[in-house]
Amino acid sequence: MATDLFERLAELEVPPPPEAFDQQLHQRVNRALVAAQLVDLLVRGLPWATLHFARAIVGFIALTITGHYDSKHNNKRR
Questions:
Q1: Rounded-to-10 torsion of CA 19, 20, 22, 25
Q2: pTM across the whole model
């Protein structure tokens, strides 16, 4: 039964793709990729960068006010 289906499909004529098929495909894929990258940047990248920048600014302000840098990381090598 499966061979009969394959034989019938082999006899059908397949029309050629449209002239601008490749260009349209690339445009759609590129739009989807750009949208996904922008969402990733807005959801993950910018909050991460903002958090680390804010920590640096708070550390700078604390250094300016107190005169010493209070590191939460203990360097055991020193």
A1: -140
A2: 0.57
Closest CA to 22 of 12, 14, 32, 30: 30
Exposure string over 44-70, b if 16+ CB within 10 A, otherwise e: eeeeeeeeeeeeeeeeeeeeeeeeeee
Residue 19 has a CB neighbour count (10 Å cut-off) of: 8
- Written as one letter, the residue type at 31 is R
User: What is the widest separation between alpha-carbon atoms in the chain?
Assistant: 85
Nearest CA among 73, 57, 54 for reference residue 65: 57
pLDDT tens per residue, range 62-75:
999 998 877 676 55
- Find tokens 């922008």 and name the residue: 38
